[in-house]
Amino acid sequence: MIYREAGQFKTSYRADQAVFPILQDRVGMALIVLAAFVAVPLFATEYLLVAILIPFLILSMAAIGLNILVGYCGQISLGTGGFMAVGAYAAYNLALRVPELNLLVVFVLAGGITALVGVLFGIPSLRIKGFYLAVATLAAQFFLDWLFSRVAWFTNYTPSGSVTAPAMKIFGFSFVSPAERYLLALFLVTLAAVVAKNLVRGRIGRSWMAIRDMDIAAEIIGIRPMHAKLSAFAVSSFFIGISGALWAFLHLGSWEPLAFDINRSFNLLFMIIIGGLGSILGCFLGAAFITMVPIALNQIPAALGVPISTATAAHLEFMIFGALIVFFLIVEPHGLARLWSVGKQKLRLWPFPH
Amino acid sequence: MQFRTKAAFAAALLAAPLAIPVAPAQAQNEQFMPSLVYRTGAYAPNGIPFANGRADYMEMLNARDGGINGVKLVVEECETGYATDRGVECYERLKGKGPSGAAAFSPLSTGITFALTEKAPGDKLPLLTMGYGRSESADGSVFAWNFPLLGTYWSAADILVQHVAKKGSLKGKKIALVYHDSPYGKEPIPVLQDHAKKHGYTFEAIPVTHPGVEQKAAWLQIRQGRPDYVFLWGWGVMNSTSIKEAAAVNYPREKMYGVWWSGAEPDVLPAGDGAKGYNALALHPAGSVYEVHKDVFKHLYDKGKGVAKREEVGQVLYNRGLIDGLLVTEAIRTAQEKFGKKPLNGDQVRWGFENLNLTAARLKELGFDGLIGPIKVSCADHEGSRKARIQQWDGKQWVYTTEWIEADTKYLRPKMEAAAKAYATEKKIEARDCTKVASN
Lengths: 354, 440
Hints:
The structure holds two protein chains of two kinds. By secondary structure, chain A is an all-alpha fold. Chain A has helices at 13-16, 23-43, 46-72, 80-97, 103-122, 130-150, 178-201, 203-213, 215-220, 225-252, 262-275, 280-304, 310-331, 336-349; strands at residues 163-164, 169-170, 173-174, 254-255. Chain B folds into two domains: 32-151 and 292-376 and 416-427, Rossmann fold (3-Layer(aba) Sandwich), CATH 3.40.50.2300; 153-282 and 390-407, Response regulator (Rossmann fold, 3-Layer(aba) Sandwich), CATH 3.40.50. Chain B has 15 helices and 14 strands. Chain B has helices at residues 2-15, 44-65, 84-94, 110-123, 153-166, 183-186, 189-199, 216-225, 237-248, 265-268, 291-299, 316-339, 346-354, 360-366, 409-427, and strands at 30-37, 72-79, 127-128, 146-147, 174-180, 202-208, 229-233, 256-258, 279-282, 357-358, 375-376, 387-393, 398-400, 405-406. The model of chain B is unreliable at 1-26 (pLDDT under 50).
């Protein structure tokens, strides 16, 4: 009933091809964006902002990057953690060695450097596919891990190998309070989502999807595989690099290579698989699922006043979380985003199915 | 405030299907004691006894004295799994709880310590990193909020080199460091390198990747190089694996020296007979024969309370947990003398840490006589004491083989100050002038 699109006529191609062709979606999106930009910073507690929303946003951005590569272009990557590390250490070194640079410029440059590294490690994708490519990108993960923990120049020769981010200052404004940091992350993630959404709707995105669906057919209709694959690696790594820099600068403040280890890569891969491959909405849903559900599960026993030990709570968290992943994958193998679009289809008819 | 919590709750529900627990009404005369623990994962064998000791000590204080000067201690644990991001989440979750906020954090993880070092000054919360953490944070003029009491890794490395140097000149010898590849394991490297130049030994650093169950390559390197001494900087399952591998390549365990985090029962017991002769630094003895244990048994275990098993009381890391509990509660007691006998905030507890002075007589009163030596903290010196003994595993228990060895302050202090200064410059922190900080 509320989701009826009857009476919404599209009179131009432009209207028909809009990101949100349905009025209800536009209103809903506007409300969510408004809530995220105004209501949350006004009312959310510090804990919610710092420990939950900021990591969620930053990982959503990384998931967007990875989804471009895996979900849209079909190139499996297990090197996401390593690419995030490239972004983080590139931003750290740029901010350290060229202190005049504006931090926003630093982030963009860090993304650019990661894009270059991503292209470099994407080259094998021209010859190998599927699981074999996954192994090649796994090598990237281990190589980058090794690089940042062994080559002391990257960590400015700190004895422990742990580096700290400089103060977050952009255009003379310091991002200190949780709300300010949250808004900065939100702004950048929104920007990334808009750019990504429009990229995948356009010519470039379509060439990625053509490669994903059948590379030989794509080549025959005139898509250059090298161009499409490497551009997917570049764009994907660009977003992942920026998210790595944000993870280090905005969230952790001080980090060691272990913050970007293989588990981070797996985590991000799970996010897009559970959220939905080839869906920008899925990146947010998946990131929310993977980052928030364990924390919520961990706190539920205490919140309900059930006296169980910390260890039992932690074990329960693992078990329920694992069960939930299996459950969602069985219910909808195409991810939470697909679940939402199925629901939307049903809502269009509800409550009068005939 | 009430409105804010509710609105945040609504916002949370809007943003995601996530339940934020609403804290129950707090009694006013309670000191909130957050506890970052790891009872699961690869480091649990070592994390559990420490967490138990710490929890038992505070529970014992509650049962015996009704808390600290009548202020009850409320402990809440949060599982970090030794992971930095979860540790930061726990810190954010717990820092504002209780009537006056958290008293102090002791994360028992160098990685989490590094991350919290960036956050603690802003939140005005002290970090107690007893025997771990950032070595240069012993310089309190720059690191006002860090308290690596009882010794840093630099002190530990210095003590180990002093000890092996006493056994004969190190000139032309070879020392290898098998270390956990994280900030924790990398901490001692600069000191060992300095000493290599001074004493003329060759130094080799051999990293072991987290969590440390795969060390064949490292020990192959040791079998080929045959270093005269192997120092072990491991944690969790890495320690016992190292000792097993040493036995497998037949490297003499008598020439292995662990740091004080590699010298507990869970480290040697899994290696069985292979661990016999293995040495480690000791900050304090094992055993449950000290005065404080009598109180722990009387007030907790005899009444069926206590979180550990009865026979686990007195293990090395259990005792270390007790000492961690002692240090933080005594800091609160010290601060209460100045700020009043009420729940204190982190800023006030920090003052308590900085003015902590546990004399031998006071330690005897507290039941810690024989466990640790006197500690006196000051603005300039946040380490308080830098002594350790060497202990050896005889197959059944740890036996002391030396007297207390004190780290060489003359060498370490300038190094520490230089590192702290570099940190201050990088972070643009104004160092405090410790000559002007009143001690009272």
